[in-house]
Design brief:
Length: about 280
């Protein structure tokens, strides 16, 4: 009896310690978000005064209107959204179709083509800054949406094919044969049979591509010269140069740029977890 009590006591203490450690780790990870949000609602007197960590004494929601109007964050947010959505659509369509051709269709050179696509994983995106710039300049595509979403989609395609391959190879080919017997051609088999089974992979690719596009700075800063097509990271950089004495709107711009990423992950995290679990089971 004493032994059982001591074991239960040790188990209870260990659980308490685990929860304490997890609680501390949660606070550490959430603190930057809290600080950034409160930072965006303060004036310079509080930011550089004695209230750097606490809640704002005066909640300056006007910082957000200043960021949207003076800093033009509304336009930059729209530009980032357009570039991200178009890039995601291109990557999803191209990676699904390419993976279908490589894994489901029989043709000479498909393995070589797959290896060619996988070479994209070995090339850091920013190492190709100069050649991509020269190509876009020759094609007269600089300072446009195309100058961003085409390179973003191209550099995300290899990862998209890699993610899709792990799922599509494990889909039974008997489904293709059954669809053919029912009168489905290649396109109908792809859209009606294969694509609906790829939802976890589609979610993972979408979030991966979104993060690549939304947070990218170097391409956006190099290929875009006018404010008309400027994205959020470049807009925030310009804002800090124009309003160095008013940091509240800069904090508001950071919140505007950061919170969409958090919201996307919160709403789609279940899909990502399902895809990881499915990949582990299949592996």
């Amino acid at each position: 009896m004493d032994t059982n009590e001591s074991i239960n006591r040790i188990s209870t203490v260990s659980k308490v310690l685990i929860y304490v450690v997890l609680g501390i780790w949660t606070v550490i990870n959430l603190f930057p978000i809290y600080w950034m949000f409160t930072f965006s609602l303060k004036g310079n007197d509080e930011i550089f005064g004695g209230n750097m960590m606490g809640l704002p004494k005066h909640w300056l929601w006007s910082n957000y209107s200043s960021a949207m109007k003076t800093g033009n964050m509304g336009l930059y947010f729209l530009n980032s959204a357009i570039v991200a959505v178009v890039s995601i659509l291109i990557v999803l369509i191209a990676s699904l179709m390419a993976t279908f051709a490589i894994t489901r269709l029989v043709w000479k050179g498909r393995n070589l083509m797959n290896k060619f696509f996988m070479l994209g994983l070995t090339i850091p995106i920013h190492s190709s800054l100069l050649p991509v710039f020269l190509i876009l300049k020759k094609l007269k595509m600089l300072d446009s949406y195309q100058s961003l979403f085409i390179p973003y989609a191209a550099f995300s395609l290899a990862m998209g094919i890699l993610i899709c391959s792990g799922f599509m190879e494990d889909i039974p080919k008997d489904l293709d044969e059954a669809a053919t017997i029912d009168g489905c051609g290649t396109w109908k088999t792809f859209f009606l049979v294969i694509v609906p089974l790829m939802k976890p992979a589609v979610s993972t690719i979408g979030i991966y591509t979104f993060l690549q596009c939304w947070n990218e700075l170097m391409f956006a800063n190099t290929f875009i010269t006018s404010g008309r097509f400027r994205t959020l990271p470049v807009g925030i950089q310009a804002l800090s140069g124009q309003h160095t004495t008013d940091w509240g709107p800069i904090g508001a711009a950071l919140v505007i740029a950061t919170f969409p990423t958090l919201l996307v992950y919160i709403f789609l995290s279940k899909r990502i977890q399902d895809s990881f679990i499915a990949g582990a089971v299949k592996g």
